[in-house]
Each structure stands twice: as structure tokens, then as C-alpha cells.
């Protein structure tokens, strides 16, 4: 066997697992790992906040499907990573966070920056573990990658005491390899039962969730839809799983990120085949309306997801791609396919009639006009990231997505500030791609310091800000309590000058007040980002009272109010 420093084995394993970029911040308790990283082929980006590192790893993983990696030292570095771990867990994103730790002999003595990060991280990870022996390190990291990828993907935290990192171990990389990930295959009788239910239905829908994208199942999804003449809807996390210009695309159902024709089509359906979708509350709204008299087939790789929100008529435990392949093959063996031209025509009619207007010319600018310009300006293979707030809801309503992994959103955890670090991660995963972050004026400020990372490492992308200087979504929520409290973030007439803030980080920006200026500003930003290799901001001043669909879920599901 070959003797080496334990951390050299760790870095070698990272390389063999396909990690070419790590995001993090060094500190005293993790310097042995950084010393090993120094001589490797892995690029490291030094972040300005450890939460930013986790979101960069998250964006990297969402883009290429591999496991993203973030490093941090002991104490606050680990606690700063908790939001990113929670975000990855909520959206089923495989990342590994590695933290340094005080020496094992000091952990019981309240040593400097010694915190039990493993116990803190357990509720928001698939696995959190502290290395006790140096000889464990290679195996802990192999298992971490296996767990992060297996079943429902998700995050892992590994805590490395300083004395464990400093030891030498026996490890031969020549005879080492990643651990096998066993696919979750469907039970064939349940596939056949699902097909029987689909063939018997008069107005079925296929609901594609984020699990379809994570399982690389978008091509077979289209094959199944076309074979069975089956209209397809997407959840917010599934946006991009099915091309929105496809004749069978039936929109999105929900109480916020939704299309009116999607809600209407859903309410007229009699069976829903949900693949890789967890029935989140922003999608379902009031469950009595959502369930109605229709049947549900729920397919999920994680058994405990079945029946978590409501009991389906049929549950299938399976990887999304393997289920859809089995369903396709089973359908091809059947001699007769149902004739559903009338149902497909009805979905098409709803799609053509229940649409929201986008061609506004008013000042202040209406959000719908912004997304009409975005749809016109960028190619289908552009990578978009967006976080949480009214702008995310408007994006879900109006923005088009045609390809998997191109529309990325922190769907469940919804951390403000996610967009800038996520965009950095996306661009590092796909350096040749065009990357665009759609942000709000409030979220922009949460991790704005990560602009310095993009400037330092020449990571260009375009930021499109919808600025209403209003905290509109919070104000809407406060209506229930008949108050308008602590939602003013101004300290002068305008509040933060976001263009000047971009310039302070060595980047550039432009402010837009007229709808006719949007197209030129977006064209300028794209050229500027390419020319400078830095982020570029287009700040668009939108109307303050442009509220999204909200209120009693039962009403929103039936017919959400259009954006004014």
C-alpha cells in the first residue's frame, strides 16, 4: 500500500468522483485539507461567506448533475453552511460540505470555535458525520458521495478534527474507485397497474416534478407523453422537464407560480400521474379542491414520500427514468392506445384562451413586460437562476423553459440571496454557457458580497433585477393581520443604489425606467458581461403594487387573479 497524508487521499477521491471545482474559505482548523488541495487539479474559489460557498456548490450540482463540494473551517463556518444544506435537502440537490474542527482532545473543553456541527446539521442532511480516525477518511468520503447520489439525492456534512487531518495513512489510489449507486427499479406489476389506469382515464395528465430532471428522464418523459397522447404539466422544480412550446405542454398548476390555463386543465382532468413530484403546498393549494374526484398515481424514488401529503390511488417506488422507461416499454406491448384527440384539443383551447397579458407599455414598468422581454432576448439553452419573492412568482408565471437544468430555482427553502452564488456555481459548471440571474432588490443584498468572487475569478453573468423597493410579497402576507409593519428598507429617497454597488465590486450596471429601454439594456448587458468577464446588472424599476396570485388557496387554485 501507499502511505500518504490523510487529506491527500481525500483530495484524490474528490478528483476521482468528478469534482473539478470547490468553493470555500480556509481557516486554521481546515488548513491540512487546503495544503493537500494546493497541489491538485481542483480549482478553488475563495468565497466571502460560507453560505455563499454552499449555494455555489448547489448551483454547480444542479447544472451538471454531479456532487458539489464546499469547504469551511470550524465553528461559525459550519453554522453558516446550514442554510445551504437545508436548501439542498429541500430541493434534492447532492452536495458535500466539509468542515474543520478543533482537535478531538479539545472537543469536551469548549475549545475555540468548537461546536457540535454534526448534531446541528443532522436535521438538514442525509448524513452528518465526524471523522474519528484518519484511516476512516477515504471511506467516509466514498460513502458521502454514494449517499449524496443515492435514492433521493441530497446533502452530506463531514466534520474533520484537526488532529485527524494531520495523520498519515495507507491508501492506494490505483486500486480505488467510487462506490456503486444501486438504482431503484420499479416493481413491474405496479407499472402495469399504472398503465391500466392511464389507459382507462378519459382526461389524464402527467405531472413532472424535479425528480424527472434529477434522474435525467426528460427524453423518455417526452416519449411516454407522445406515445400515450398525454398532456404534461410541470411543477416549479420540474420547469424545463418538458418543452413549453410542445403541443402537449399543459402549463403549471398552483396558487402562485402557475398559469391560468394550467389550473383550468388540471381541474378538468380525471387522473394525474405524478413523477418525481412531492405535492408541495404552493402547488396543491387546498387539498380538497386539488384532489377532487380525480385519481392519483404517485411515483417517487423515496418510499416515505408516498402518502406524505395525501394517499395516492397507486404508489410506485422507483427512479423516475427507470419508471418511465418501464411504462413506455409496457405501453408498446399493448395492442391498442386510447384516442384522446378531444382531451388534447381541450387543453390546447385552454392554453390559447386563458393567458395573461404581457404587452404593457405603462410606466412604472409592469413585471409581465419584463418577462416578455426576457423570453425574447435569450436563447433556449440559457441557464437561469432565481430565488424567492414576487419576482420568482412572476418568473414561474411568465418565463419560458424548454430544456432541463436551464431553469433553476430554490423551490422549497427559499433563501434570499441564493441567486448570485448559484449563478457563480452554474457558470463554473458550464463555462461556455450564458447564465442569467433574475433577482429582487431585497434578495440581491443578502449575499451581494459574492460579487467579489465573480470579479476575482472572471465569472461573467447577467443579473436582471425587478426593483419595486417595496417588499411586496411580505406586504401581501401582512394584509391578513391588517398591518403594514417593518417593510420599509429606505434610509434616503431611493434606498440602496444598486448600480453603484455593482461598480464598487468592479462590475457594471444600468437602470431602466421605460419599458422601451429593456431590450437595449439586456443586449448591452450580454455584451458587457462577455467583454469584461464580470457580472452585469440590469435594474428594472417595476410598479410597486404589482401583486401576485395570493389569498385563499381554494380560490387561487380555481382561478388565480391575473397580474394587473
Automatic annotation (TrEMBL):
Annotated keywords: Thiamine pyrophosphate
Record-linked InterPro entries: DHS-like_NAD/FAD-binding_dom, THDP-binding, Thiamin_PyroP_enz_cen_dom, Thiamin_PyroP_enz_TPP-bd_dom, TPP_enz, TPP_enzyme_TPP-bd
Record SUPFAM superfamilies: DHS-like NAD/FAD-binding domain (SSF52467), Thiamin diphosphate-binding fold (THDP-binding) (SSF52518)
Keyword Transit peptide (UniProt): no
Catalyzed reaction equations: 2 pyruvate + H(+) = (2S)-2-acetolactate + CO2
Domain of life: Bacteria
Any one of the GO BP annotations: L-valine biosynthetic process
Family in the record: Belongs to the TPP enzyme family.
Designated name of the protein: Tartronate-semialdehyde synthase
Amino acid at each position: 500500500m501507499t502511505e500518504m497524508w490523510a487529506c491527500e487521499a481525500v483530495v484524490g477521491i474528490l478528483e476521482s468522483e468528478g469534482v473539478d471545482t470547490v468553493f470555500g474559505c480556509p481557516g486554521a482548523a481546515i488548513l491540512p485539507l487546503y495544503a493537500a488541495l494546493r497541489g491538485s487539479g481542483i480549482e478553488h474559489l475563495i468565497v466571502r461567506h460560507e453560505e455563499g460557498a454552499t449555494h455555489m456548490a448547489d448551483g454547480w450540482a444542479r447544472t451538471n448533475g454531479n456532487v458539489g463540494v464546499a469547504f469551511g473551517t470550524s465553528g461559525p463556518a459550519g453554522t453558516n453552511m446550514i442554510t445551504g444544506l437545508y436548501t439542498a435537502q429541500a430541493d434534492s440537490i447532492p452536495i458535500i460540505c466539509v468542515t474543520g474542527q478543533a482537535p478531538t482532545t479539545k472537543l469536551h473543553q469548549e475549545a475555540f470555535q468548537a461546536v457540535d456541527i454534526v448534531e446541528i446539521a443532522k436535521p438538514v442532511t442525509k448524513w452528518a458525520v465526524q471523522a474519528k480516525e484518519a484511516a476512516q477518511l477515504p471511506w467516509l468520503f466514498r460513502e458521502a458521495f454514494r449517499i449524496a447520489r443515492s435514492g433521493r439525492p441530497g446533502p452530506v456534512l463531514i466534520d474533520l478534527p484537526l488532529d485527524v487531518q494531520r495523520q498519515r495513512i495507507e491508501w492506494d489510489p490505483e486500486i480505488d474507485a467510487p462506490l456503486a449507486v444501486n438504482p431503484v427499479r420499479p416493481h413491474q406489476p405496479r407499472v402495469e397497474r399504472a398503465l391500466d389506469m392511464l389507459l382507462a382515464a378519459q382526461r389524464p395528465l402527467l405531472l413532472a416534478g424535479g425528480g424527472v430532471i434529477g434522474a435525467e428522464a426528460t427524453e423518455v418523459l417526452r416519449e411516454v407523453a407522445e406515445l400515450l397522447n398525454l398532456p404534461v404539466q410541470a411543477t416549479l422544480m420540474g420547469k424545463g422537464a418538458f418543452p413549453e412550446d410542445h403541443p402537449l405542454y399543459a402549463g403549471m398548476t398552483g396558487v402562485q407560480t402557475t398559469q391560468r390555463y394550467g389550473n383550468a386543465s388540471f381541474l378538468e382532468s380525471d387522473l394525474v400521474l405524478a413523477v418525481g413530484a412531492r405535492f408541495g403546498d404552493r402547488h396543491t393549494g387546498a387539498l380538497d379542491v386539488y384532489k377532487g374526484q380525480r385519481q392519483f398515481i404517485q411515483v417517487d424514488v423515496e418510499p416515505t414520500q408516498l402518502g406524505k401529503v395525501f394517499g395516492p390511488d397507486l404508489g410506485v417506488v422507483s427512479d423516475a427514468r427507470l419508471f418511465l422507461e418501464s411504462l413506455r416499454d409496457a405501453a408498446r406491448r399493448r395492442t391498442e392506445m386510447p384516442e384522446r384527440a378531444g382531451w388534447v384539443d381541450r387543453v390546447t383551447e385552454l392554453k390559447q384562451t386563458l393567458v395573461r397579458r404581457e404587452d404593457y407599455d405603462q410606466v412604472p414598468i409592469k413585471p409581465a413586460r419584463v418577462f416578455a422581454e426576457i423570453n425574447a432576448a435569450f436563447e433556449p439553452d440559457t441557464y437561469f437562476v432565481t430565488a424567492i419573492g414576487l419576482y420568482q412568482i412572476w418568473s414561474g408565471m411568465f418565463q419560458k423553459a424548454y430544456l432541463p437544468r436551464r431553469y433553476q430555482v430554490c423551490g422549497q427553502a427559499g433563501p434570499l440571496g441564493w441567486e448570485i452564488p448559484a449563478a457563480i456555481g452554474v457558470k463554473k459548471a458550464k463555462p461556455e454557457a450564458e447564465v442569467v440571474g433574475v433577482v429582487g432588490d431585497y434578495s440581491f443584498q443578502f449575499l451581494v458580497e459574492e460579487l467579489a468572487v465573480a470579479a476575482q475569478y472572471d465569472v461573467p453573468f447577467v443579473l436582471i433585477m425587478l426593483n419595486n423597493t417595496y417588499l411586496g410579497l411580505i406586504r401581501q402576507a401582512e394584509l391578513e393581520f391588517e398591518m403594514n409593519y417593518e417593510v420599509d428598507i429606505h434610509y434616503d429617497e431611493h434606498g440602496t443604489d444598486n448600480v453603484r454597488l455593482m461598480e464598487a465590486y468592479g462590475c457594471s450596471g444600468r437602470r431602466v425606467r421605460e419599458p422601451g429601454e429593456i431590450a437595449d439594456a439586456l443586449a448591452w448587458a450580454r455584451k458587457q458581461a462577455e467583454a469584461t468577464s464580470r457580472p452585469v446588472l440590469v435594474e428594472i424599476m417595476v410598479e410597486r403594487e404589482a401583486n401576485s396570485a395570493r389569498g385563499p388557496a381554494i380560490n387561487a387554485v380555481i382561478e388565480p387573479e391575473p397580474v394587473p
